[in-house]
Amino acid sequence: MSIASIRDVVLCADDYAVNAPTSQGIVALVVLGRLSATSVMTRSPRWAEDAPALRDLRGRLDVGLHLDWTSSFAQSAGFGGALSTVMRRAALRRFDVAALRDEMERQLDAFEQHWHAAPDHIDGHQHVHQFAGLRDALFEVLLRRYGNAASRPWLRVSSVAQAGFKARVISVMGSKTLQAWANDQAWPTVGPLSGAYAFDGNVADYAKRMQGWLADLPHSPAGPALIMCHPAASAQTDDDIGPARAREFAYLASHDFVQDLRDAGVRLVRGSGLPMASA
Questions:
Q1: How far apart (Å, rounded) are the C-alpha atoms in residues 151 and 268?
Q2: What is the average pLDDT value for the chain, to the nearest integer?
Q3: What DSSP state is assigned to residue 277?
Q4: Do 102 and 164 form a contact (C-beta atoms < 8 A)?
C-alpha cells in the first residue's frame, strides 16, 4: 500500500474523568498507541484526581475539553439539563448567553488548572457545543482566550452521516454554522465525525462497526477525519453505557483493531498536527 493511499483519522475517546474505569481504560489504550485524542469532563469531581495520569502521557495524544451541559454533574451543578431540555432551550433561543460564557470559562479554567496548558481541542458532550446559544457563547470565549494564540484548539465538527435518525439529528444541529464560523475565522476543525451507534451489540458487533467506519473514511487533503469512541476498562454499575464502554475497550485493546487499521489503510494522527510520540 502506497503512502499516498493511507488515510488519516483522529480516534478520540470521549468522557475522560466521567468515572474511574473510563479514565483507566483511556490511559491504558494511550499507552498501547490505540488512541490519538481524548476529551475531558472537567465538571466531574474526578478530574483533579485523574489529571496526573493523563499528564504523564503528554505529547502522545491531543487532550481537550468536552463541554458539558447534559451530564449528571452539569445537572447537579444547576446549569445543565437532560439532552431533550437543552436541545429545546437552544432551539427556542432561551439560553442566557452571558451565563453560558461564564460556565464555559469555568470549565476551561478547570481544564487548564489541572492540565497545565490550554486544550488541544474543544468539543461537546452529546454535541452541545454546536447548539444555538451555546455555540455563540463558545465563539466569544474562543476568540477571547485563544484568538491570538500561536496554536488554536481545533473544534470537532459533529455531523454524523451514519447511525440512527436521532443521532444524526443531534449531531447535525448547528454543524454547518460552526463550520462556517471556523472558515471565516480560519479556525482549525476536524471532521467529519464517525462512531455514533446505539451502544448495543457485542464486541464482534462493535468490531464490524469500526471496520465500516474505517472503510468509509474520506481521502481529504484538508486534514484527518474523526472517529469518537467511549472505552472503559470495565463497566461501572451506575453508568448507563458501561457495558458498551467495556466492549469498546476490549476491541480497541486487541490485535484485531491493529489489523483492521492496516487492512483499511488508516493511521491514527493527532488533530493538532503534532506527531504522536512513542512510548
A1: 21
A2: 91
A3: -
A4: no
CA 111 to chain centre: 14
pTM of the model: 0.92
CA distances (Å), origin 199, targets 23, 24, 242: 19, 20, 9
Question: For a pLDDT cut of 70, what percent of the chain falls above it?
Answer: 92
**Distance between CA atoms of residues 204 and 258, nearest Å:** 15
Q: What distance in Å separates the CA atoms of residue 19 and residue 47, rounded to the nearest whole number?
A: 9
Residue type, 65: L
| Residue 252 in grid coordinates | 480497541
Which residues in 58-135 belong to E strands, given as ranges? 62-67, 121-124
What secondary structure does DSSP assign to 198-246, as a single string? -S-S-HHHHHHHHHHHHHT----TT--EEEEE---SS--TT-TTHHHHH
If 0-12 CB within 10 Å is exposed, 13-18 middle and 19+ buried, where does residue 207 land?
buried
Measured distance CA(73)–CA(196) in Å, rounded: 23
Torsion on CA atoms 82, 83, 84, 86, rounded to nearest 10: 90
249, 30 Cβ separation under 8 angstroms: no
Task: Name the E strands within 24-176.
Answer: 37-40, 62-67, 121-124, 154-156
As a whole number of angstroms, the distance between CA 16 and CA 66 comes to 8
Nearest Cα residue to 16 out of 99, 55, 77: 55
| Those residues with Cβ within 8 angstroms of residue 93's Cβ, 6 or more apart along the chain or in another chain | 132, 133
DSSP 8-state class, residue 228: E
Identify the three-state secondary structure at position 40. Answer: strand
Q: Are 239 and 233 in contact (CB under 8 A)?
A: no
Using alpha carbons, select from 150, 60, 149, 145 the residue that is nearest to residue 111: 145
Q: What is the mean pLDDT of residues 140-160?
A: 91
Domains along the sequence of the chain with CATH: 3-268 (3.20.20.370)
